[in-house]
Fold:
Amino acid sequence: MTHRLCIVSGCLLGLMVSPAFAQFGDVTLSTFGYFQVSFQHQESTLEEDTDNSFNVQQLNLFFQTDFTPRWRGFVNFEVLNNFSSSQGWGSFDLDEAWVRYRANQHFILRAGLQVPKFNRLNEIKNRTPLLPYVVRPLVYEESFSEFFNIEEFVPERAFLQLEGWFPVTAVKLDYAVYLGNSPNVNSQFDNTRNETSQQTGVDTTTTVLVGGRVGLRYGELELGVSATRETTNDFSVLAEAEADDRPFIEGIAPNELSAIPKTRLGVDLSYQLGGFFLEGEYIAVRNDVDLPKRLATRDGPPRLGLDRTFYYATLSYPITERLLAYGSYWYSTERFLVEVLSRSYHEEVNVQVFTGGVRYALLQDADGFDRITLKAQYAFAEIDEDVDVTVSVVNLEQDNHLHVFGVAVSVLF
Amino acid sequence: MKGRIKILVWMLGLAAWAGTAWAQEVVVIAHPSVPVDTISQAQLLNFYTGDVQSWDNKMQVVVYDLKVRTEVRDTFYDFLGKTSSRMRSIWLKRKLSGEGDPPESFETEEEVVAHVARTQGALGFVSATNVNGAVKILTEIPLADQ
Structure:
């Protein structure tokens, strides 16, 4: 069924890009896109092995039409990680499908599936021609989405966004507010398979996401603060899971944890001085879990938490008009804590990455846009995982060091 | 007689110098329908980065660029306070985000003048010697080496 669906989708895409569909009435359809292919060599000290892999990390195909100068329609399909329906590799997603009305620079309204404004990189994280990386800062690396839940750190979907900017002397004040879905809506945990099934975007009755960003631009300085507020059912999913033949979170019905408030806070900064370009971001995710006192442990009040923090900074410099070099530092931490009745579980995973690389514009078009770009990157990652399970008297600490070397070709068409 | 010849030579020299000085300027030109007679660097930057896409009378702004890297184009970008590669980066981000399209660019200044002359709300930049009566001049930018 999935195979037939992909064949039909492919045929429809082919028809859409054919000249017969380039113009309908007096409206012209514009198609463009890009892809990035990479080779990555990875060495792990913990597993004492080496991985080498070629990967079509990402391909994005855009369809755009201007109905009038104020009204625009935009669709973005995204293919990740050597997508193959027959092999079950990668993914094929509808990333964006929106219509925009621009009254003026103060009032721009987008309705439809879109990537909301959160910090500086969220909107463009999957625009590989814009970024010098083979592997992007962790929370923005789409090809990691199969095993690193990006949506827990940054909002990936909104359905209504109002944005614009206002001048205040020489400063431009940006704003954006949006509504969307919380991730993992309608998740259900299957105990027989020990896995979670998810449907997103189906019901927003109790899991609406609201968010926004305010920022300022002054010359080459950009600053912004972003925030989102939503509810999550992560903890009800955990409550339904079993460990030691009993619910992971005991004493409370899963539906009592089905709408836990979650807040994301983001700060972004970018500045260009001379040829140097500095950019950085900070993201914090906190859950407000308020447990009843009856769940207290022998040692104190009940606690349940799942907090995440991420930050990065990148400094880049154009050595020539075509060659750019950069260095970057990334840090992420996830803390999961359960202290309820007799269950005590602490897990903390910290990831620290030192990375640097170069980007070379191999081919530019007549307008000076980089059509084919070569990238090379080295990253050293330290992964520190601590798990403390008091009931089972398990205390696991493991450190893993990864050396990753990657090269990539990014093509804009 | 000699006095008259001296005056004539002096006047010819003055005219030649004035002509040369005028030719060394870059001018920002606009379609006659554009509702302003002058424009600031900040306004130009807003139009050429796509931050502002319409004039105060709601008419769409159409900006044109030059393909070839010339002293005229470098002078214009210097005036905006951006490098050519920075402008490309700004326009590519807007294009790939669906926020806007890069300006249409042309091989020659004559083409820029022709398109500005026939497009309502249009802006462009050329050297002063290529301006004709079909467009109006909004501002003058001395070449970078002056």
